[in-house]
Design a protein that fits this description.
It is a single chain. The protein is of the alpha/beta class. It is 38% helix and 20% strand. It has ten helices and nine strands. A six-stranded parallel beta sheet has the order 1-4-3-2-5-6, sandwiched between helices. Helix 2 links the parallel strand 2 and strand 3. Bound molecules: pantoate (PAF). The site of pantoate has 10 residues, from strand 2 and helix 6.
Length: 283
Amino acid sequence: MNVVYSECEIRGLVDKWHHNNLTVALVPTMGALHEGHLSLVELASSSADRAVVSIFVNPAQFGPGEDLSEYPRNPEDDIKKLGDYGVDAAFLPTEDVVYPSGFATKVDVTGITDTLCGRYRPDFFSGVATVCAVLFRIVRPDFAVFGRKDAQQFAVIKRIVEDLRLDVEIIAGPIIRESDGLAMSSRNRYLTPKEREQACGIYHGLICASEAYHSGVADTKVLKQTALKEFEKNDLLELQYLEIVGRNTMQPVKEIDGTALMAVAVYVGKTRLIDNVLLSSAD
Ligand code: PAF
């Protein structure tokens, strides 16, 4: 596996692959890789001839008081995992590679970022959109793979690709869960054993609402109450938001007509976790 740090090195590799008519898929990550990331890596490898994984803890997407300094960083472990997964290149740019001196651009997506996480993390999506636009321009992949756990992030990325006519196809990876249903996240490692035990209550709440939906309840107020009742069984879960929104618009809906997304953000102790479930009549 190639481990590269500079724009020039990753460009050289991708240009060489493209010159040989090989397609390239990028998985952007912030490292601290877990099985959820590795499932995206598998998707990248099966979608393109070459798979590149970027690891960059992007300061622009952390607000004041968020966990930028504590965010887990294990580049050696990550590189080993990626090597074992047959990744072709790991790209670990430093901050000055992504944001060279004088960098002054922000990519701001409106509308879909007004709700859910966007209400509580005002800088988050412009940080994500900006870094992804830069990574797409540096790496120039044919495909880029993102997980559905970050559903609003996924909608933002799709939007910038369409609006800025970025020449990359976005591929969605499913949410990967622990055996008790907790969605995999790099932040799960912050949880104490007691918090970890209760954290799976998030998934149980979503599943109860999904079951109610499939048994004929379409009123989103009732569905939210169903999930809340389940969350409340766990005294360490502190809800930040629970919403049912259009899958692409991210705007709240009252009645589900076809497909909608139930999305939640919860504090478990000091750790903020997000999760979601698709409520779809097609399932
Ligand atoms: O989902 C993440 O890990 C990050 O938000 C991303 C997409 C790598 C951008 O920094």
